[in-house]
Write a structure and sequence with these properties.
The chain is mainly α. It has two helices and no strands.
């Protein structure tokens, strides 16, 4: 594809994406609220990961298969 055509297509696509994004404005919240919810999300992820790690460590081991 020729560079000028590629640039033109990119310009048209990015303008369309910008116009679509303008239709859905983000709610304005304070920085304190956003940071607080981010910390809650990180904490929940950490507790979920630690439970999964504990479950795999404490899982009963399957008996080894010994063919007769």
């Amino acid at each position: 594809m020729h560079a000028d055509v590629h640039h033109l297509l990119h310009t048209v696509a990015s303008a369309e994406l910008r116009s679509r994004a303008a239709e859905f404005p983000l709610p304005r919240t304070s920085l304190r609220t956003r940071v607080g919810w981010t910390l809650v999300e990180v904490g929940l992820r950490l507790t979920t990961q630690s439970r999964e790690a504990t479950a795999t460590v404490n899982a009963p081991r399957a008996a080894a298969f010994h063919p007769a």
